[in-house]
C-alpha cells in the first residue's frame, strides 16, 4: 500500500500539466537574466566599436585623425560629433590640441574655456616666431604655438559617462 501511495504522490507531483505553473517563475527569471546579459553585451560592444576610427579608453572615446586640417576645421569636426579637442599630447606625432590664445595674446585657454595652469612647452615656446600670429598649439614631444591656419592632424575626445 505504501508503494501505491508513493507512486500516486509521484504522479501528482510530476504531472506534466502542473509543470507550467511550477516553472513559470523560473522561466521568467532566466529570460530576464538573458535579456540583461544580451543588453549589456550590446552596450559594451557598441562602446568598444563605436564608430570607425574611434577608440575607447577608460571613460572616454578618442578619435585620432589621419587627415590634416587647420585648427578651426579640426575643432568643428570634433564639435559636430559631440566631442571636444583633446587636451593631451600624443608623443611623436604632431597634432592640434585644444589650446589657444586667440582671444587675448598670452592668455592660453582650453576649448572648454578653462585657463592653462601648467604646460609642456618646448624650450623657447610660446614665441610667436618671426612676428607671426601663432595663436594655436600643436603637440609632439612638447608644445609649440603656431598659426591657426596651418594643417595638422588632431585628436577628439568624447566622454562616455
UniProtKB/TrEMBL annotation:
Residues 57-157 form the C-type lectin domain. Keywords: Lectin, Membrane, Transmembrane, Transmembrane helix. It comes from the Eukaryota. Gene3D superfamilies: Mannose-Binding Protein A, subunit A (3.10.100.10). InterPro entries: C-type_lectin-like, C-type_lectin-like/link_sf, CD209-like_CTLD, CTDL_fold, DC-SIGN_domain-containing. Coiled coil: none annotated. The chain crosses the membrane at residues 30-51. Pfam families: Lectin_C. The keyword Transmembrane helix applies. The keyword Transmembrane helix applies. One of its GO terms (molecular function) is carbohydrate binding. PROSITE patterns: C_TYPE_LECTIN_2. This is C-type lectin domain-containing protein. It comes from Cyprinus carpio. The lineage of its organism: Eukaryota, Metazoa, Chordata, Craniata, Vertebrata.
